[in-house]
Structures are given as C-alpha cells and as structure tokens.
Amino acid sequence: MNLKQDSHNNKLTIVAMHKFVQERALDIGLNLEGPLTKICERAQINRPHVYERKTQIEDAMGEIELAGPGRPVIPTSPTEEEKNWRLREKVLRFRLNHPGALVLRVGGYATYSDSFIRFILDLHDEWEGSSEQFCEQVEVPYATFRSWSKKNL
C-alpha cells in the first residue's frame, strides 16, 4: 500500500503526517491556525499555488510504498573481519572437498594441485583488498602466489 492510499483510511498515518507538518511549521515560525486565506497572507504565498503544490504532494505520496508488517530487513555490508572469515571458510571447504589439494611437507614446504591454484586465483579476482592481505587469509606465501599469477596471465 502506498502513502496516499494509507492516508485515506489510517488514523495513525493522518496523525503522524499532522505532527510532521506541525513540527516543520514550528521550525520556520509559520502559524497554521485559521482559514487558508489568512494562512497564505501570513506566509506571503499565493493561494492558487497551494492547490498546485497539494496536487504535486498527493502524486508523490502515491509513489511512496509503505513497509509491510514486521521488522524491515536492514541490509548490511559485511565488515572487513567478516570478509576475511568468509574467504578463509571458502578455502577450508575447498580443501575438505579436495583432499591433496594442498600437501604440507616436512620443513614447511608445500605442494599445491592445479585445481587449488586455479581456485585461489579465481578467489583473488573477487578480492577487494591487497594481494598481501589476500595471501595472509588463504595461507599461501605471497611469493608463491605471485609466481602463480605470472604463469596464468
């Protein structure tokens, strides 16, 4: 339902709009008491312009959709930490689903499967931070990542 439709039968909407108009009038020192002719004289505006603006406001109200019942969904963008966790989760899920994709050897040496390398390079394409931060999150040495990037250009 839009705001114009709602204002035809919802007392809450009418009272809320009235309160809004009262507050705005008070902010600019406008007295809304009395007949329209007197209000227009005090505000130094032409009465026919009031009717034109009223039509414009009614048209705009017809375009404003009101929220339905319940709490509105508030979209939030993920924090830096959440992005890092999601990236690490993707890498760990890949490793769980592809045993042998990353094999750690004695002495800290590691071997990587071609599919793991491709997966990491694809993830990097979506990454919005620095390559160094990316490498830290996916636990791949930066020098190794750079060599992969150069080979796949």
How would you describe what is shown here?
The chain is mostly helical and 153 residues long. Helix 5 packs antiparallel against helix 6 (114-126). The protein is built from eight helices and two strands, in the order αααααββααα. The protein folds into two domains: 3-63, no CATH class; 80-151, no CATH class. The radius of gyration is 31 Å and the shape is rod-shaped. 63% of the residues lie in helices and 4% in strands. It has a two-stranded antiparallel sheet. The longest helix has 18 residues, at 80-97.
Structure described in brief:
This protein has helices at residues 3-7, 11-27, 36-43, 47-63, 80-97, 114-126, 131-138, 142-151; strands at residues 102-104, 110-112. With 153 residues, it is mainly α.
Task: Supply the key terms.
4% strand; mainly alpha; 153 residues; 8 helices; 2 strands; 2 domains
The counted number of beta strands is: 2
Oligomer: single chain
| Helix amount | 55-70%
Shape: rod-shaped
Strand order of the largest sheet: 1-2
Strand and helix layout:
Layout: H1 3-7, H2 11-27, H3 36-43, H4 47-63, H5 80-97, E1 102-104, E2 110-112, H6 114-126, H7 131-138, H8 142-151
Antiparallel strand pairs: 1-2
Helix pairs in contact: 5-6
